[in-house]
Amino acid sequence: MAKNIKKESIQMRHKRIRKIVCGTQERPRLAVHFSGKHIYAQVIDDSVGRTIASANTTEAGLKTQKPKANAATAMTIGKLVAERAKAKSINKVVFDRGGFIYHGKVKALADAAREGGLQF
Asked: What are the tens digits of pLDDT across the range 48-107?
């Protein structure tokens, strides 16, 4: 029962955030998602509905380690998605925390992306 309430709370916050946050061609949206085991991050242009760059823990290079959805792994994903976005000449993004509270893993991923060169 408690899991459903937590999931519903995250979904409500995400809907509320998405009313405001929208990615454009000049400033795409950096969307993050955390499941129980994995971390996903995508840079999305919402005007055409296209993912420009992405990184997650299910990729072959990161799957050799045991998947952990912790702050250390979030930092790795943040740096990787920033590197891939910079390769496609994207410097500025809008951060979409996906309904998750800006603390712990979310903050670690955002800080790592900023260190990687993304501005938001």
From this structure: 999 999 999 999 887 766 768 899 999 999 999 999 999 999 999 999 999 999 999 999
What the block records as the tokens of 52 is 């420009």
What residues does each domain of the chain span? Answer: 2-115
Q: Which residue has the tokens 């509905």?
A: 49
CATH says 2-115 is which class? alpha beta
DSSP letters for 27-66: S-EEEEEE-SS-EEEEEEETTTTEEEEEEETTSHHHHTSP
Q: Which whole-number Å values give the CA distances from 102 to 59, 65, 107, 108, in the listed order?
A: 25, 26, 6, 9
Angstrom distances, CA of residue 50 to CA of 42, 43, 53, 116: 10, 9, 9, 22
- Burial 93-108, CB ≥16 within 10 A → b, else e: bbbbbbbbeeeebbbb
Report the distance separating Cα 67 and Cα 60, nearest Å: 11
